[in-house]
Amino acid sequence: MTQRYGIPAALFSLKSFAAAMLATYLAFSINLDRPYWAFLTAYIVAQPLAGAVLSKALFRIIGTFVGATAAVAMVPPLVNSPELLTLAIASWLGLCVFVSLLDRTPRSYMFVLAGYSACLIVLPSVETPGAIFTIASLRVQEITLGILCGSLVHGVVLPGSVTRFLLGRVASILVDAERWSRDLLALEPRPDLDAERRRLAQDVSELHQLSIHLPFETSSHAPRVRTVRALQDQLSLLLPLGAAVEDRLRLLQAAPGGLSADLLALLADVRAWLAAPATDHETRTAQAAALHGRAAAIEPSVSAHSDWRDLLRLSLLARLGALIDAHRDCRDLVDQMTTPSWMPVTPRAGELLEGRRNRELHRDYAGAMRAALGAFLTILIGSALWIVSGWQDGATAVMLAGVFLALFAASDDPLVPLRGFLLGTLVATLLGAFYGYAVLPRIDGFPMLVAVLAPPLLVLGALMHSPRYAGIALPTLLGLGSPAIIASRYQGAFAPFVNGAIAQLVGVAFAITMARLLQTAGVEKAIRRTIAAGWRDIARRSDASGPPDLRGWINRMLDRVALLAPRLALQGQRDGTPLYDALRDLRTGAAIAELRQVRLAMPPMDAAPLTDVLRDVGAYYRNLDPAAPAPANPALLGEIDAALAAYAAADAPAVRRDAALGLVSLRRNLFPEALSYRGVAA
Amino acid sequence: MIGEIAIGAVFVPTLLVVALLALLLTALLVRVASKAGLYRFVAYGALVDVCLFIFVLAALAVLFPLLGVHL
């Protein structure tokens, strides 16, 4: 009911307005130097979810404090050599951007802020170095005031709950995941299913981003972060397992003879179970165990006489069993999230939660380095232009350009938000001129100021709530919070206003120029770096000899899949093109982990065929060139087939089964076009 | 006269330090109360949190001068 008629947007706008006005009023009444900073900050931390406001507020306070400390430490020793001071501040910004890009969660805001707060404090105060401490301390106070007002209003007045939002997302993700699994088990394939299923990777990343806010949720019943992590693990399994099941199923369907009756019956029952799993834990666990048991019962045993069809059937049934378990675990963990108690809802949920802490993520050092260099150069070149030109307000332009490059370093195409900023600043300048010279001269006192500012601020605040207009609404709001408007007494001087407005526009334009200079072919390169990082990882993992870390591998690789999808879309390519298929690489890595596990369990003298396969897979991935990826060497196919034959004759049934499972997966991933095993020889 | 505490060479109002302490204590109390299920009897948790903070701050403001720290 409350979701209709734009009520959430209106409420959000009213709350943000109240917070900003409270901050402005307090800043006026304690005579802070730049009350507009408190005003701006109240709007910057404004977000619909209360937990997100609190976490952003804390990150912003810490970042500002660290940045101010850095500024106070940097300026006095270097004040006599502007070149060195510029170098120091540029390096500091670069360092902060680098660290923030490695983090990639809402936490990264803290590092960005530490970087640009130092710029904001140092650059305007190079003329008056003696006052640096006062300026830094005032900035911290102004920001903190804005943050406190923002947190108070957004946290207390009808707070939007992160928990409720997260649980809503989890419920819809679960429904989607179960529908996708049902569709892939159906007998007639859906051509767009693969592309749709890959959204799961982004959903898992989104859960990760949301979970950062959970510790800041003050309301009761917030699920524990480790429950979210465990759910991420299980959801992550669905993608590779589902892809493997689908692959084997389609092959068996196409093979002469098709699917056997017992398999068809099992598939239909699994689909029915996925459509409506029981809601109480015991029944659901029993249902899953029964289905898994049936899959295990009709699994063919591997022997020296097994043919390709038997192996595919084994692979299908084993992966199907694992898929059923993963779906059961997802359900259990979602139930765990919705119960207020911390006691595990099922013994299995307890196992999954045990010792779960961090999620392994992809780290793009080269990309972070590149962005850091961009921010560094922007400050350096900007400062050079500013000092040489002798334009005093040029400091604002350099400062803003640095801020923008730091803020948008994480985005693939910084030009999109920057264009929004340019437009927003332009609108704000016109609005500001109207207010500064037509409205403000006629009013007197704080209540009047609130009254005249209310119309544009309330409209812009409501626009901020919609993702479509937020990119323009926020810059306009920030532009309105200019020193000419949010000031304790009327400042009618025209020259400083125009100078400031021009500096802002030049700053954005300069940021756009620098971003264009530095970001050419950025997306293409980023795609290749991400893919190549996965390949290097596979190569390293296939050479390693200790116990494999399958969960870490799947998490990191799924993170890469999630990073790649929007970039490939930006390039007009669909994910899953044969060259850049991170999901296939994920499955290859998982098969390698299985094979390493098998190798650890067997005596060293039996391990030779497996070691050959692993070594050559590693060599193949190590030499793969992202610019011109080549298909795997046919000799490797021979080795895989030789290993299949060797282990099919092994004594222990577990070795026969597990080695066959890993090798079949590897064979299907690396040589999807190859003829069936022994198909050529026979 | 506003009491101040010197951290390094920086003077910080005592009240700010006490308020931070109160914030930490409140966060702790909220966690404990939430674990104990007390928030189930509360219609509007956020407001209770704020009031709790004010109580804790008031208590500390009474307590500290008794311990000889000037606010």
From TrEMBL, chain A:
Keyword Manganese assigned: no
UniProt xrefs under InterPro entries: PHBA_efflux_AaeB/fusaric-R
Domain of life: Bacteria
A Gene Ontology molecular function term of the record: transmembrane transporter activity
Transmembrane segment boundaries: 12-30, 36-54, 61-79, 85-102, 109-137, 143-167, 367-388, 394-410, 422-440, 446-464, 471-491, 497-518
Location of this chain's protein in the cell: Cell membrane
Any single Gene Ontology cellular-component annotation: plasma membrane
Alphabetical list of Pfam families matching this protein: FUSC (PF04632)
Keyword Transmembrane tagged: yes
Topological relation to the membrane, as annotated: Multi-pass membrane protein
Annotated keywords: Cell membrane, Membrane, Transmembrane, Transmembrane helix, Transport
Protein name, UniProt field: p-hydroxybenzoic acid efflux pump subunit AaeB
Organism per entry: Sphingomonas dokdonensis
Gene: aaeB
From TrEMBL, chain B:
Pfam families: DUF1656
Membrane-spanning intervals of the chain: 6-29, 41-67
Keywords from the named record: Cell membrane, Membrane, Transmembrane, Transmembrane helix
InterPro entries per record: DUF1656 (IPR012451)
Highest taxon above the source species: Bacteria
Protein name per its UniProtKB record: DUF1656 domain-containing protein
Lineage: Bacteria, Pseudomonadati, Pseudomonadota, Alphaproteobacteria, Sphingomonadales
